[in-house]
Amino acid sequence: MTRYLASRFVGMLIVMAIVATIVFFITRLAPGDPAAIMLGDQATAADIAKLRASYGLDKPLPVQFVYWLGELVQGNLGQSIFLQRPVTQALIERAEPTLFLTLFSIIIATAIGVPCGIIAAVWRGTATDQVFSGFAMLGASIPSFWFGLILMQIFAVGLGWFPVAGYGDPGVPLGERLHHLVLPSIVLGVVNSALILRFTRASMLDVLGDDHIRTARAKGLSEAQVILHHALRNALIPVITVLGLTFALLIGGAIVTETVFGLPGVGNLVVSAVLRRDYPVIQGALLVIAGLYVLINLAIDLLYLAVDPRVKY
Amino acid sequence: MRAPSRSPSALLLRKLFRRRLVLAGAIVLVIIALLALFAPWVTPYEPTAMKIVDRMQSPRASHWFGTDELGRDVFSRVVFGARYSLTIGALVVLISVTGGVLLGLVAGFFRRLDGPIMRVVDAMMSFPDILLAIALVAVLGASMTNVILALAVVYTPRVARVVRASTLVVRELLFIEAARALGVSTWRILFVHILQNIASPILVQATFIFAYAVLAEAGLSFLGVGVPPELPTWGTMIASGQQFAHQAIWLVVFPGVAIILAALSLQMVGDGFRDLLDPKLRKAM
To answer: Which residue does chain A place closest to B244, by CA atoms?
Structure first.
């Protein structure tokens, strides 16, 4: 057990190190001198040289990489060129809408996906199953930004039930800020419930074919008892994995959805950083999000241990 | 191919299309592909022909999908958009499948390379698709070629993972041992014997990646970090129609429906392939 945990942890560190390496070298792929790009067209040669020196860009690439890694280990993600502040600070300032959006949408996605998936599996082959499975496939084919635009036109512009865009200033009461998140959360939640629905259905079908279910039926338990007590508990364990996957999808979806609804979140920060070629911000966001993903998946593996007594490492 | 032959592939197709959803998906897909192929002949207007007098017309007989802010025919643009969106999707599939098959075969067959390759694959897959694509396009520069390259890089690890998993299984089969005993070269075993036997999961994966790539291209173009706005892809059309959505919702609706139809039909066909090729499911069918 301890050995498993240790090896899992080492594996995670290796993956994170590779992630950091990829992130570093991606931004070095950019054609041209990063310092010149950072300073724009009007920069003088002296300015560029100064910036190159201050970022250590005049040193060989491996040296730069080691220096960058050293800063990274201390939690320093560098300085945003455009925003004139540390990347960490910029990320923290923008974290609130993204965190809430991700949280609400995963709740909505689970609330739709898990019950519908169970029902579709139990009533396999019926019209209900076909409607739910069809919905699941449709959900995976709808671009979230398009769905957001359409819902916004109907419920915000047309009916006026929700604010059209924005998030309100930090001074605005939390309730009002959250009101801005209702529509975007529904968009992301509904679109992402598709994967959870499919997965729950498949997992439930798997379990329903097991011997212990036949035994439970044979000993005269009611169908409700068989499904709720014997099948569901086993079926939901693999669903935990898909929640980790959904997290990655949600972050990606959040980037696009934030842009549609003008939410000042991390996604918005990244997109504007790309348009301004603010590489430290892009690097920082990539690192933090990939890091979160790796950590969440580790947490899920550990959760397996806690939830499923059959899993032993 | 339509002949009532009893060849295995014809049988397979018959079985595949026996499911109505799969057949529907295939038909929609063929229609979209034909429209894209014959775009200049099926569209009533040039996709770039502007006619300011006719701007922002709602859908009507002369303009089935209405016109945009410059008086361009939305139907013609959506059909031409299929050309760009499907070409981008197809090229992404081609590159990422080639790369993924190479990496996956090598990782699955040579134990010593398995660890290093799969760690990199794991690392690549810890970035959300769209975020990695955005970052790559940001450094490479926004152009159609770079969007294709970026998305290919994003999806190669997915293919690699599937190919490796299948290779691990096939590698242990008796006929591989037999081939080796007969003195067949390692490369021939890899690229002929193993590849032939893992073709079906690759095909399934390719179909899904095609759908994801169409969706991702639209997302990138919508964010303004994809193909240049003057090319009429479905994504750029939604992006430019967005600001007029409150008065001309058709500018957003039709390209969006085109994306959904393409992605949906691809996934239906992919699902059909998967159910057909997965022996465990086939028994249940």
So the answer is: A153
